[in-house]
Amino acid sequence: MKVFISADMEGITSTIKWDECNPDKEFYRYHAGQMTKEVVAACEGAIAAGANEIVIKDAHGPATNIDITQLPECAKLIRGWSGHPYSMVQGIDNTFDAAMFIGYHSSAGREGNPMSHTITSRPLYIKINEEYGSEFILYSYVAAYEGVPTVLLTGDKMLCEDSKKIHPGLYTVSVKEGIGSSCTCLSTEKSLRLIKENAEKSLKQDLNKAKIELPESFKVEICFKEHNYANKMSYYPGMKKLDSNTLLFNTDDYFEVLRMAHFVL
Ligand SMILES: [Zn+2]
Hints:
Layout: E1 2-7, H1 28-48, E2 53-58, E3 75-78, E4 98-104, E5 123-128, E6 131-132, H2 135-145, E7 150-156, H3 157-163, E8 171-179, E9 182-185, H4 188-204, E10 218-224, H5 227-233, E11 239-241, E12 246-251, H6 254-264
Parallel strand pairs: 1-2, 1-4, 2-3, 4-7, 7-8
Antiparallel strand pairs: 5-6, 5-10, 8-9, 10-12, 11-12
Helix pairs in contact: 1-4
Bound molecules: zinc ion.
């Protein structure tokens, strides 16, 4: 069994502020260690369910956060950014049996995480077909585009609740609950146990039933915090300007959503 894991940092158990996710800051190393442990817990659960090949995309900041020396032998780690629009799921293709998302966070426009955002801090909100557009939606849709079911999501409570309706076979682990600039975080011991247990359970389900069909068309609305940036991005091919801060992009091809997100956000 072949499993793809994408890992971010703002939705791991321990982080509540940007400095903790920034390699140049004092306490970063501790939180990067926790990110690694959460990825390893998911790998252990996957291996217990029969995974013998795991590809992990380090998908936060410079993408050099995960400690490769802690990973199991059957894992490969993709570090850095290639520039491909698959971005946080670079490396996924139709040879994988399942996809997992670890350490993901609430989207721009949602208050479930002190660091809620989508790709960058430029958007006030993004909506894809009227739903708030989280990084989880953007990249779990890539898995679906490749025919791969998304089976596990770990992150803040609001993201987990927002995301269950998208994927029928999704197991979630809410490792923290954001309230304003604060979070109530599980003990790391408990979150690691839950991640491992749910990773295993999520792969033991009927994976064919966990697959989704992508919507036939995509209506992407982006409201930028800065009107001058919105004006500049309104010149992206196919983009419509709705008002001073808000743009609209329509397409039937999901890859064009990714290409747009790659250049505009
Ligand atoms: Zn991140």
